[in-house]
C-alpha cells in the first residue's frame, strides 16, 4: 500500500486519524457521489471524474501544505468512516477545521466530534494555529450542531471563502490543545 510517509497518526479513545490513502477511494467515491456530500462539493449529479479530482485535492493538500484532513477509522479496523482536519486552500481567507462522515452507519455515534476535536488540538499544538474557523452551509444542521458542540460560535464579520456562495463561519474558541 502506498501512503504519505511523513504524515502524523493521531489516536483518540476509539479512533485512529491518519492521512488519506488510495485504499480509501472507494468509500470516498461512494460518499461523494451521493446527496450526503451536498455540503462539501459532492452530490448525486457529480461525475466519477469530479469525485476522483476532489479526492486528489484532499491527498494533494498534504503535499502542498504538509498538513491536511485525516481519514478517521475505528481502532483495529482500517475502514475509513470519514475525514476531518486542518484545511487551508490558497484562496481560503482563514485556516479551517472541516469534517465529513462518509457512511450512514458512522453517524450519530460521536465519531465526528471525537475526530474533529483531536484534529483541532493537532492544529493548535503542532501547527501553531490560534484562529480556526469552520465554514458551514446554513442548511447543514448536523455540521452546525457539531461546530456548536465543539464550542464554536458564528462570526458574522468573518470573510467568506467563496463570496458568491455565502456560508456560516463558525469561529472556534482560542486556546492551546
Strand order of the largest sheet: 1-2-3-4-5
State the share of residues found in helices, binned by percent: 25-40%
Number of domains: 1
Number of helices: 4
Q: Roughly what fraction of the amino acids lie in strands?
A: 15-25%
Q: How many strands?
A: 8
Q: Largest sheet, if any?
A: 5 strands, antiparallel
Description:
The protein is an alpha+beta fold and 177 residues long. It has a single domain (10-171), classed as Gcn5-related N-acetyltransferase (GNAT) (Aminopeptidase). The chain has 4 helices and 8 strands; from the N terminus they run ββααβββαβαββ. The chain has a 5-stranded antiparallel sheet with strand order 1-2-3-4-5, with helices on both faces. It has a 3-stranded antiparallel sheet with strand order 6-8-7, covered by helices on one side. A hairpin with a 3-residue loop joins β1 and β2 (15-18).
